[in-house]
Every structure is written in structure tokens, then in C-alpha cells.
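Appendix B, record 7
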Amino acid sequence: MIKTIYSITIAVEDLDEAVKSYEAFLGVKPTFSSGYEVLFTESSLKEIGIDFKDKIAVFLLPGIRFILISGFDKNTLVGRFIRHKGEGVFMISMEVENIEKEAKRLQSHGKKLILAENIESTFGTSNIIHPNSMNGVLFEIIQTSSG
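C-alpha cells (predicted):
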């Protein structure tokens, strides 16, 4: 069962400039900013198509996270997204109670999961729903480490 929106990830060309803009808009500084390897294991990143050199900044607000991600080059998943669609919402993450049950439920409703198996990250266990299954929107489902 989906509990809530966990995060919204926004693809940006220039992370430093975007951080300044979002700091001014949100009124907070990012909690951390680093390479994407902080979130996922190397094998998980390769399976998703995100490069270790992609950079992120995470803004924590009550009940939600805004994540800015900038592609290392134009051939990474994020770089291709920006090249084809421009900057904007890259992915919406939904928190779920039980990742295994939710993955099976989604598949029973014809949703295609990108990953053959759920992956571990800093924040919990997740999988990604192919955008072709969701009207062009990339969704992640995540069971957080804290429950």
C-alpha cells in the first residue's frame, strides 16, 4: 500500500546554480550534496543506468524531500533525460509499507518494473516503475529503512 510521496527528483543542468535557486525558493540549504554513489551500490546504479559521477543535492522539508540531480555527461540516464526533455521532474518516489507486496501488486495491474529485483539504498529498499506504464512518468517505490 502506498503511504505518501517520499521525494520528488528534479533533473538540472547546473547543480550549483539549481541549489542556489532552490535554497532561495525553499528557504533551506540542502542536507547533503554529493555523488549518487551515496544512495546506491555500484551494481544498482549500473542496473538503473545512473552514473557514479552524477551529482545530487537533497533538501529535507517536513514530510518530503526535493532531490536535485545533475548528469555527469549527456550519455547518462539523467543527461539523456535533460537532452530529450529539458530540465524538470525526473522521478517521483512513493513510500510503501511493504516493497515486496507492492511490487507484486503493481505487476498484477500491468505495471512494468525496471529492476528484476528490489535494490538497497541509503534510504531503504526500492524499485522503479517504467515510465511507459505510468503515462511517461518515472516512479520509484521505496520502503524506507525506518519502516
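Remarks on this record: The chain has one domain: 2-144. Helices lie at 15-26, 42-48, 77-85, 99-108.
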